[in-house]
Amino acid sequence: MENVRTPVIDFQAKARELLSDSASYDSCLACGLCASGCPASGFYGMDPRRFIRMAMLGMNEELSNTPWIWTCTQCKRCAYVCPMNIDVSVLVGYARSIWPKEKKPQGIVRSCEAQMRFASTSAMGVMPEDFVEIVEETADELRQDDERFKDIKAPMDKKGAYFFVNQNSREPAVEPEELAPLWKIFDYVGVDWTYASKGWAAENFCMFAGDDMAWKEMVKQRVDAINELGCKVWINTECGHSFYTMWKGIERFGLRVDFEAASLISYYAQWIREGKLPVNADWNTKGIKFTIQDPCQLVRKSIGDPVADDLRYVAKKLVGAENFIDMQPCRSANYCCGGGGGFLQAGMAKQRRAYGKRKFDQIATTEADYVLTPCHNCHTQITDIGEHFGGKYRVVHFWSLICLSLGILGKNERKYLGPDLAEIGLQESHG
Amino acid sequence: MKQQARQYKTQMVVVGSGLAGFAASIFARDRGITAAQIGNTGTIAYTTGYLDLLGSASGMVLDDPWKGLEVLRRDEPCHPLSRITDDNIRTSFHRFTKALSEMGVGYTEPGEHNLMALLPSGLIKPTLSVPETMRAGIEAYKADAKALIINFLGMQGFSATEFVTNLEPVWRNMIATTLSFPDMESGAQVYPEVMARALEVPAIREQLAVRIKAKLTDAECVGLPAILGIHKPDLVHRDMQKLIGVPVFEIPTLPPAVAGIRLREMFEQVLPANGLTLVPQQKAERLDLDDGGVTVYLEDSFGAVVIKAQAAILATGRFLSGGLTADHGIVRETLMDLSVSQPASRDDWHRQNYLDPRGHPVNRSGLEVDEHFRPLNDDGRPVDARLFAAGTVLAHQDWVRQRCGAGVAIASAYQAVDAACETLSTQA
User: Fold this and answer.
1) ipTM associated with this complex
2) What is the radius of gyration, based on Cα positions, of chain B?
3) Do residue B173 and residue B74 come from a single domain?
4) Are A378 and A298 in contact (CB under 8 A)?
């Protein structure tokens, strides 16, 4: 494996080809705002500024071989703070694509390969028939266990449903009980939605693996599944990169679609504003404090501050404005937690945790008891760095708190909640 | 793919997110005008944090900027500051610095005299208002106080030894020392921004204070590169002073420095919470003026954004920020191809001597405006009654040489917003 050579590419020429028209590549002042604001600066003696300068100097051999590209999470914070709009992440994406498969971090490669194996596109290898069965069994249990949900449905392959809903594989694969809170929310609002047996999975590690063909194939399978059912809106649930990989993939590969891509967060906010989700913070009598991790893939790389505003609107309604503390920086300027870009799957735990130290400090400063985040990679990474650096916080999905606030969160749906929230709202539950 | 269109409608649109752009948005907010603002980082990230009104006029370094303005009005009547009354300049500075302090970065009250502020290389410059975290350094310099000046292992952009050596002739009582920053002791490059964020954590402040106290001996004050927090610098500053037991002051560092990052992050967070529609880190691609009003078009990674308003303020800056561009023969305005006042020919752009005290004519190129700060056509008439300009995109100033960058930005933004409000009220 060590003998496999990485092809050497002309990064300067690639940069001119890939960078957007608004980027002023020749005007890079080497000011270092990119490197200063990048948590991956320093690994393998690299940082975003060095990457650009080395490209300018024609150091293609070094750039083609540096493992730093797997510690960069492609979060685009460097581009966000660059006065010249230079985006190092697109060059990193290209560098990833030229590495021989054998040399790439195998965790990312295997996740992509798993996605390619079945029509479900699941990186955890959950097959279509497994998904259908797990959803049906979980729904059955819910109907039996709680009188209030005796008629609840988790529709599968329902043609013409308004919303097509994707699902991160983690729930069906390892914690199916975590599926139910979202269904309860849909049931509460009266949403016309469906899962699909094909193309339902959210995660897409093929993009992180630098495998364009596979990325395209994944997006195409999902697009076909949505088109086949004729849904109007594809809702991306609480998973960050799935949103970016989908809309960006559709644009990048020129796929034709008739649906709108939307984030579940925007709909949470809309339903609360419309009174369809009458959440409140009355349950938070102890003044438990919450903060938000803005997923880079959803906020900075996709919708921008409007969805960050929605996140805060929903959070404040759920926990009380006085119990919400923003971490700094936040919204579009937020730091990646270090769980993105396939870093969690790349087997580079030492660097990943060093990267995450900045996130840990941000959270520590807020003194929050809980971190709310609508992203599974953020969820896993922030939990891990909390344990590693001795934090006392917990990480929680929005769907758990929404159901908690509505008094419909079951006893077995509280694995991410601490003892302080374990009993809240249960007296109203029939479960 | 169908995407949700992002369209915004406000009374005013501000193009540019440097000091002038944010000042315009603040002044609009004060007047109850709804505003949208777009523009990428701009040079605000490069500031020392000092707000200069006027540091030099007709070759003199100014102790009294207000007297300097009299000289400027006599010698340079077309200078943007010459066209704004002292009252309006004072009001604009007071309101702007008050707004900064209220939003979370404390600034000193602008007074009658310039402050002699410290620069990273150990030089002194005249300025009107400084961040509270830097105030004690000015006082220590004036008093020739015994100071411990610290730099950090692995940090570029500030050398305590250079600072002390260059200032030695005028500030004798200084000692330079190097410390390692908690958790950043390897000797690898460390950035002021990272240290500043780390100091937002109380436990790290305590660790650093212990290291500083061990070096303190009989020093009466401590000078640090600007690293005392990003989001709550005044709190971090107060806490460090308490922990160390003597006055502490920040010295600006070379970019990437925290003083500008502080302002940028504060603006980006506080102003939208107060009603500003901010589209950060994007450049306007087109600005149309027609019967329907002003329409600004731009595109970000997620698609098109359209902003409709009834008045526009161009605060797009100069060459670095992209408000102006130059090829080998001519200087152009980039967004609307407005008329640019400039030397008659390329040969006249620069003087022979790079350090000529008169500066270079090309640095005074920019937009001509009328008394309402509306850009003018070649024929001397306003381009449009709804279009205004502010900041360093304006002609007849050399802000670097004259130390008047913030002065031009803040005072002209005030004047332009004032005029735009009149237009809006006429329309209403």
Assistant:
1) 0.91
2) 22
3) no
4) no
